[in-house]
Amino acid sequence: MLVASTFRWKIPGRDVRVNSKSSGTHTMAKGISALADRYTVHDGRKFRLSRYDTREGRKWDKGDAKALLQQSTEKLAELQEKLYAQDRWGVLLIFQAMDAAGKDSAIKHVMSGINPQGCQVYSFKAPSSEELDHDFLWRTSRALPERGRIGIFNRSYYEETLVVRVHPELLAKEKLPSGLVSKRIWKERYEDINAFERYLARNGFVIRKIFLHVSKREQRKRFLERLERPEKNWKFAVADLAERARWREYMDAYEDTIRATAAAHAPWVVVPADDKSFARLVVASAVIEAMKGLRLAFPAVDDAQRRELGRVRRILERE
Ligand code: ATP
Ligand code: MG
User: Fold this and answer.
1) Which one, 175, 248, 273, 294, has the greatest CB density within 10 A?
2) pTM score, two decimals?
């Protein structure tokens, strides 16, 4: 249920007001789905990561963020129910980020109200030897969502142009015939990813690629928390420090990847992730915006079906 109130927040270039007094989640959802606009990249040609501030949302009132997140969760649940019932479209959400950017918790929070039967989450770690025996899209293709469902990739084939690009020794492990590995390899990977995503889109799968954009400074803070708090110790991996040391290279790889693979049918959402509540809200907003565009509706019952339902109902009532 909605509390009568007006949420406002100012972000550069946009003043978003969400007046939730009038008609419940409907009014709210309008404002919410507009929030992700500013962070969505449909055409990467002029993309510059430095233009995106990781700290937007710092001044955001935590209580407001939580209330809006709660409402957007309800909206998402409603959209997902229709997606499932209609069984035509599928949704693929790809999460990419540096360590401790909040991928796991964003997935957990945004999807918290959703029926587990309509949602699948896959986490991709360093490839196994079986996976290395296949082409690089193989393991993710096997995990794609069915129609009617939301599939979440916690990391994805994008690792190929991120961690593998930063660590060429990982490419060497992929057993590609040497004649096929040239300086053009990354450009070719982008082409293959673009073709794959276009193919999915043409088959009714809606794609949103979510980059949780955290600052190096905020990562340090979160790593220290993981070390200080016993219940968070397990999350800290010594190897994460080595990746942190190559921050600049990773950011260049992200920028290049987003430039080459942002498309109208598969946009990137560059989420300011230094503030967790705000980040979750932007993610929820992007998912709602994507699903609203599908004009989802419960399948209509035709006259013959309605007569049949009437007949069954009479039988049951006579019992
Ligand atoms: P957590 O938040 O728990 O640390 P995580 O997603 O970082 O979650 P880890 O098991 O720590 O999970 O890390 C998975 C590792 O696998 C990452 O370092 C990632 O870069 C690496 N990885 C994923 N895909 C590939 C790939 N195709 N090639 C090489 N390494 C990969
Ligand atoms: Mg990790």
Assistant:
1) 273
2) 0.90
What tokens appear for 97 in the block?
């980020």
Domain 40-298 homologous superfamily, CATH: P-loop containing nucleotide triphosphate hydrolases (3.40.50.300)
In the three-class reduction of DSSP (H, G, I as helix; E, B as strand; rest coil), residue 207 is classed as strand
Question: Of the residues 155, 161, 164, which should be mutated to test ligand 1's pocket, given the most ligand atoms within 8 Å of the CB?
Answer: 155
| Residues forming a β-bridge with 114 | none
Q: What is the largest CA-CA distance in the chain?
A: 76
Angle in degrees, CA 156, 157, 163, rounded to 5: 90
Q: How many angstroms does the Cα of residue 292 sit away from the middle of ligand 2?
A: 33
Structure tokens at 6: 């007006």
Residue 57: pLDDT band (50, 70, 90) is: confident
Contact 155, 124 (CB under 8 A): yes
Give φ, ψ of 302 to 5 degrees: -85, 175
- 14-19 and 40-41: which strand pairing? unpaired
Residue 155 backbone class (left: φ over 0; alpha: ψ -120 to 50; beta: rest): left
Q: What is the reported pLDDT for 240?
A: 94
Give me ligand 1 centre to Cα 85, in Å. Answer: 34
Residue 30 above 70 pLDDT? no
Q: What's the 99 CA to ligand 2 centre distance in angstroms?
A: 5
Q: Which residues face 121 on adjacent strands?
A: 152
pLDDT digits (tens, 9 = 90+) for 253-286: 999 999 999 999 999 999 999 999 999 999 999 9
Pocket of ligand 1 (CB under 6 A): 99, 104, 123-127, 154-155, 159-160, 163-164, 170, 235, 237
